[in-house]
Design goal:
globular; 14 strands; alpha+beta; 4-stranded antiparallel β-sheet; about 280 residues
Length: about 280
Amino acid sequence: MAAPQWHEPRSLEEALSLRAEHGEEATLVAGGSFLGIVMNQRLFSPTMLVALRSISELDFIEAGGETLRLGAMATHRAVERSPVVREGWPSLAYTFSVVASPRVRNQATVGGVVADADYASDPPSMLAALGARVVARSVRGEREIPMQDFVLGHYETALEEDEMVTEVRIPRSGGRSVYRKFRSRSGEDRPCVSVAAARDGGLRVVVGAVAGRPQYFPEICELARGETMSGGLAAEIGRRYADAIEPLSDARGSARYRRRVIAVEVRRALEDLYDG
């Protein structure tokens, strides 16, 4: 099999032009931590690779006004260690800090983890709970897509074939948020179940690693509106999430096992959220 064509644009405009000309054939390479795995396993054989590492304008972490902006090429490690993120969005810094190992976090990027739409990645569920918006750019312009609507299924996103992720925008929250990551196997970092919960006027609970996309049920979260979060209410919300989700089965746990874990981890996340 022929080696894929390699392009390394020096500007965002050049990268967008390649994407516009070649569409999905132009596979974007950010950190490459996920793409390298699927290529080595021969699950994906691209014909063209477009490396984004030389586009410095995509590598930034900024907080202006009430919004945190994470450039697509900002690494997990940079987000984890950023004073700006730690001060204003501590749960997000924590979420990025529990991804794999420092070696992986030094390579993996914000844009990559969002665009890969890997069901067992940590950040997407936390980003969804915080009300983040993904910025998609093309030569036609840019648009913002709510994180909750961005991932459509296994490795499938709302991006058009000529678009690319350029940044993620997260609003400042006046409330607390927490992230819980349950690992069922000691030899593996990827979660069996993850739960991101945030409250800022209302409650948002997003469960990850159990289906093709992060799972959020606003009607269940409404049970907490105007109520004091008791142990019974937290357990009820956990049970309802477990009933509403149709979990997948994989090496980290069966659907039946995951359903039991969802109920427990959602309850614990709510206890953490309201006890702090």
